[in-house]
Amino acid sequence: MLHAIQDLTAANQSLLDSRFAERLLTLDDGVQAVREVGNGPAIVLLHGIGSGAASWLQVALQLSERARVIAWDAPGYGASTPLTQSAPVAGDYAERLLMTLDALGIERCVLVGHSLGALTAAAFASGLGRERVSRLVLLSPARGYGDPAREIQRQQVRSKRLQALEQLGIEQMAEQRSAHMLSPKASNTALAWVRWNMARLNVEGYRQAIELLCGDDLLRYAPLPVPCEVHCGEADSITVPTACLSLAKALDAPFSLIPDAGHASPIEQPHVVTGRLAYALKQSLTGSAL
């Protein structure tokens, strides 16, 4: 079994290199790493705090039949230069995203934010990218703890995350936390791919992402000026369905569950996630609302 899982993980790595290769963009504030595949209307994928661009592999390959698919390694992740701010907010990540889209020549896109990536996506769509985003899709969105009413939670989450980083380090964190990203029904292959992605975090980028999670609030960017939809894994134990539903209601956005999926739905249920994103892409092209 172990050898079989290792072989499948190696196969995913091979697909990354051959079909969803990394590209390094030189921007005014450093290097930005992206992965790209396909042609057509653009769909841009933003990963969560414990992941990276490679987590979108299967979704990207499936979507590439109908779209130009771009996934970034957020600032401080992979080969991407960290932000200059020690405690950045979503608007700081949005500035880097704008430079990235400019470098790629993307004037209009469907923007997808998973988990913490939803914060950056919402900030971008409500501000700098207002004219660039045709539709916003939030998968298991992390609201963040920047609301003063959530100060106690903010302190607890920040302390817990930073302590885990100091005491365990990236590799042990990946070993211990990866199973929490998935449903109890998840395959060993999905677990291995979550772990592979998480084990490649960079300490500085992860620290900055913790500050984003604890210092900002997605609802700060509401009401959103673009059509938005929210989806959540039905077995998500991190951004639980009830929390995602409440967030969707606050954003006046439609909400749906992703069957047999935990938090890392793009890895656990790539076919279902691809279907949701393909539909969002179609809606963006017709200009219709859900």
Layout of strands and helices, then pairs:
Blueprint: H1 2-19, E1 22-27, E2 30-37, E3 42-46, H2 57-63, E4 68-72, H3 90-104, E5 109-114, H4 117-126, E6 133-139, H5 151-177, H6 188-198, H7 203-215, E7 228-233, H8 241-250, E8 255-258, H9 265-268, H10 270-286
Parallel strand pairs: 3-4, 3-5, 5-6, 6-7, 7-8
Antiparallel strand pairs: 1-2, 2-4
Instruction: Tell me the number of helical segments per DSSP (H or I, 4 or more residues long).
Output: 10
The domain tally reads 1
Average of per-residue pLDDT values: 95
SSE arrangement, N to C: HEEEHEHEHEHHHEHEHH
Shape: globular
Strand order of the largest sheet: 1-2-4-3-5-6-7-8
As a percent range, the share of helical residues equals 40-55%
Which CATH architecture? 3-Layer(aba) Sandwich
CATH class annotation: Alpha Beta
Poorly predicted residue ranges: 1-5
Give the structural class: alpha/beta
Condensed summary:
By secondary structure, the protein is α/β, with parallel strands linked by helices. It has helices spanning 2-19, 57-63, 90-104, 117-126, 151-177, 188-198, 203-215, 241-250, 265-268, 270-286, and strands at 22-27, 30-37, 42-46, 68-72, 109-114, 133-139, 228-233, 255-258.
